[in-house]
Amino acid sequence: MNASEGYIVYFFPQALEALGEAIKPYLREGPGGEHVLCHEIDTAGSLIEMTIEADGGEGRPVALELMVPQSMVKMIVSARSEAGFGFSPRVAPALMALPPVAGNAPPADAPTQAVPASDAAPATAKASAQAQLPPEG
Questions:
Q1: Using alpha carbons only, what angle is made at residue 30 by residues 51 and 33, rounded to the nearest 5 degrees?
Q2: What is this structure's pTM?
Q3: Cα distance between residue 126 and residue 108, in whole Å
Q4: What residues have CB less than 8 Å from 33, skipping those under 6 apart?
Q5: Other Cβ atoms within 10 Å of 100 Cβ, number
Q6: How does 61-97 read in b/e, with b if 16+ C-beta sit within 10 Å?
Q7: 3-class DSSP state for residue 63?
Q8: Which residues make Cβ contacts (< 8 Å) with residue 10, sequence separation at least 6?
Q9: 3-state helix, strand, coil in the chain (%, to 5)
Q10: How many angstroms separate the CA atoms of 18 and 45, rounded?
Q11: What's the average pLDDT block by block, 10 residues per block, for the chain (137 residues)?
């Protein structure tokens, strides 16, 4: 894994003490103290799931998942070197023309048939009738 991509997870000292020897193979030393360098991270549940890329012993990469309670984590730092920032895609995807739902589907620009084009019940009469109904709760 490139050292400039991923997440750095720092633990509370009490957490490192509680995890003991089990966490030691995954820890790295740095200016901010001991930490775990992860490729991916999931903080959605009660456990923080960290995916670590490691050497499987035979030269094959292995993805390991470490899971610790959220209360053990002091801080998570994103170590990404991407220049772009924002919530939209970096490259806008090309618009895709969707196939029709059925063979006899009307074209997209055809007038809708969901609402009848009749003047039998004006919209104001329907709105006033709905205003007299009790509120739904």
A1: 90
A2: 0.54
A3: 29
A4: 10
A5: 10
A6: eeeeebebeeebbeebeeeeeeeeeeeeeeeeeeeee
A7: strand
A8: 32, 33, 34, 35, 73, 74, 75, 76, 77
A9: 20, 30, 55
A10: 21
A11: 70 94 90 89 92 81 90 88 56 52 70 67 59 69
Both structure tokens of 1 = 């894994």
Please report, in angstroms and rounded to a whole number, the separation of the first and last CA atoms in the chain: 55
DSSP-assigned letter for residue 112:
P
Whether 73 and 48 have beta carbons less than 8 Å apart is answered as yes
Q: Which two tokens stand for residue 44?
A: 């959605």
Q: What are 51's two structure tokens?
A: 């995916």
The one-letter code for the residue type at 132 is: Q
Amino acid at 24: K
